[in-house]
Specification:
This protein has 259 residues and is mainly α. It folds into 2 domains: 103 residues, no CATH class; 127 residues, Helix Hairpins (Orthogonal Bundle), CATH 1.10.287. 78% of the residues lie in helices and 4% in strands. The protein has 6 helices and 3 strands. Strands 2-1-3 form a 3-stranded mixed sheet. Helix 1 packs antiparallel against helix 3. The protein is rod-shaped. The model has no long low-confidence stretch (mean pLDDT 93).
Length: 259
């Protein structure tokens, strides 16, 4: 950082007001973008969330189809065993063997019934999940379309303003380097505490800009003399006289025109 040479109060006021004009211009650019970057970010998160949900649902569908396939295999195995046990019943030597085989047949028949019940449940779940997937895909398409529109909108604004904003940020840093730390910290503190970011304002119609509180004539004369830094007792803002403000606005407008 360059060494800050001793400057007059008037020069300090002019530099502070110039810094304010640059920072206000940056604020305007960012206000034009508004909530768009956050909207785009939220939409991107939502789109990713919907894609993840569809992947999860498709994975669950695969598992259900696998379960159905397993149950169908189980049914075929059970039918094969029933056929085997039925054949064996024809060659039994006593009632005990016959009853034992009958129980095996009965068990396999129950296995088939249970497997068929499960298959029915799995198919109902599949239909339900397919409907959820359909609705989620519709939502995803709608959100992706909205995201594309918002991204295009943001890209257009960035293309128009990014270069100017970068140049203004550099200009802001240049002015900051010309201001002593105590004043710069005060400026930043005031700027951070007021809604519109105006830390340095001119007098308009006998009051500080944007305020309804009249500044006494004696104080207005002191401000116009540019001999000391004077703040508004109500808002804490640094005050400059209208003539100085007008001169600096004209000067800065010509600088802005070249950015």
């Amino acid at each position: 950082m360059a060494t800050k040479k001793e400057v007059t109060v008037e020069e300090k006021l002019r530099t502070l007001f110039d810094l304010q004009l640059v920072d206000s211009r940056i604020d305007e650019i960012r206000n034009v973008r508004g909530e768009l970057p956050l909207e785009v970010e939220d939409l991107e998160d939502e789109v990713e969330g919907l894609k993840t949900r569809i992947e999860k649902l498709n994975s669950e569908l695969e598992n259900l189809n696998t379960e159905i396939s397993n149950k169908k295999n189980l049914i075929e195995e059970a039918k094969s065993l029933i056929k085997k046990y039925s054949e064996q019943q024809k060659n039994v030597r006593n009632n005990r063997e016959y009853n034992s085989l009958s129980k095996e047949v009965e068990f396999q028949e129950l296995e088939i019934q249970l497997a068929e019940k499960h298959i029915k449940e799995f198919k109902a779940q599949i239909e339900q999940k397919k409907e959820v997937i359909k609705q989620t895909k519709e939502r995803l398409n709608e959100r992706e379309s909205h995201l594309k529109h918002k991204k295009s909108e943001l890209d257009d604004i960035l293309a128009e303003t990014e270069k100017e904003e970068e140049a203004l940020i550099k200009k802001s840093e240049e002015f900051e380097n010309l201001i002593e730390d105590r004043l710069l910290n005060a400026y930043k503190r005031i700027r951070g505490s007021v809604k519109n970011g105006l830390a340095v304002v001119s007098i308009e119609r006998g009051a500080s800009a944007g305020s309804f509180f009249t500044i006494p004539p004696q104080v207005q004369m002191e401000i116009a003399s540019r001999k000391k830094i004077i703040t508004d007792e109500h808002s804490g803002r640094i005050l400059v006289d209208p003539a100085l403000a007008e001169e600096e606005k004209e000067k800065m407008e010509s600088i802005f025109a070249t950015i």
